[in-house]
């Protein structure tokens, strides 16, 4: 096998096996996506793209330029430390593959490291309060759709609950007496 073919195969293996960085973030967290290959090379410009069916430009800067060029992207973004892409308060819609395009200086190779960002679902939390009922079991109560009731409704509810308890107690006592009377009559007949 010739050296040229071997060199081409080694280069193909190198470029096809470059792994992308995985970043996991919580909802509403600030994230900086790092452009990993930038540390070791001279570059002319750095640009960030979000990749889905096509590339969407986010931000670009030329070396020595102070103000970056900001593309028409769906959310605000800016350069972070060492030309990383800073995204504030990320949401699940920000999940995806981002590409850092490094335009290399003369005699160097352009690089395109990718970062895969995964943002957790945003959870809405209702304020929870614990309350203990008469049986001493704990209930979790959400105040999300709570409305204040007039005092008269509360008093009427307590009165109805008290009356229901009294009626159930009277019925229970009547049933217990009836069972006791029947059992005593049966015992008298057996004598």
What does this structure look like?
The protein is α+β, with helices and mostly antiparallel strands and 191 residues long. It contains two helices and eleven strands; from the N terminus they run αβββββββββββα. It has two domains: 18-119, Immunoglobulins (Immunoglobulin-like, Sandwich), CATH 2.60.40.10; 128-174, no CATH class. It has a six-stranded mixed β-sheet with strand order 1-9-8-3-4-5, with no helix packed on it. Strands 2-7-6 form a three-stranded antiparallel β-sheet, with no helix packed on it. A hairpin with a 5-residue loop joins β10 (128-132) and β11. It is elongated.
Side by side, the strands of the main sheet go 1-9-8-3-4-5
Helix tally equals 2
CATH class of the largest domain: Mainly Beta
- Run of helices and strands: HEEEEEEEEEEEH
Q: What's the end-to-end separation, in Å?
A: 115 Å
The CATH topology name of the largest domain reads Immunoglobulin-like
Brief overview, please?
The chain has helices at residues 3-16, 151-190; strands spanning 21-25, 31-33, 43-51, 55-62, 69-70, 78-79, 85-87, 96-104, 114-119, 128-132, 138-142.
Characteristics:
Ig_sub, Ig-like_dom, Immunoglobulin-like, 2 domains, about 30% helix, membrane, transmembrane, transmembrane helix, 6-stranded mixed beta sheet, 3-stranded antiparallel beta sheet, about 190 residues, 2 helices, alpha+beta
Please specify the SSE layout and strand pairing.
Blueprint: H1 3-16, E1 21-25, E2 31-33, E3 43-51, E4 55-62, E5 69-70, E6 78-79, E7 85-87, E8 96-104, E9 114-119, E10 128-132, E11 138-142, H2 151-190
Parallel strand pairs: 1-9
Antiparallel strand pairs: 2-7, 3-4, 3-8, 4-5, 6-7, 8-9, 10-11
């Amino acid at each position: 096998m010739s050296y040229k073919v071997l060199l081409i195969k080694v280069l193909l293996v190198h470029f096809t096996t470059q792994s992308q960085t995985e970043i996991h973030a919580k909802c509403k967290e600030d994230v900086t996506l790092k452009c990993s290959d930038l540390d070791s090379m001279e570059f002319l410009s750095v640009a960030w793209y979000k990749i889905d069916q096509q590339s969407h430009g986010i931000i670009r800067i030329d070396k020595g330029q102070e103000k970056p060029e900001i593309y028409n992207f769906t959310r605000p973004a800016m350069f972070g430390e060492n030309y990383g892409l800073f995204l504030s308060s990320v949401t699940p819609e920000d999940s995806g593959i981002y590409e850092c395009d490094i335009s290399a200086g003369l005699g160097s190779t352009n690089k395109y490291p990718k970062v895969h960002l995964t943002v957790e679902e945003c959870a809405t939390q209702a304020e929870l309060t614990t309350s203990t009922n008469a049986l001493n079991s704990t209930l979790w109560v959400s105040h999300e759709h709570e409305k204040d009731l007039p005092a008269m409704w509360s008093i009427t509810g307590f009165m109805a609950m008290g009356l229901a308890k009294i009626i159930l107690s009277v019925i229970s006592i009547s049933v217990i007496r009836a069972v006791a009377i029947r059992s005593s009559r049966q015992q008298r007949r057996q004598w």
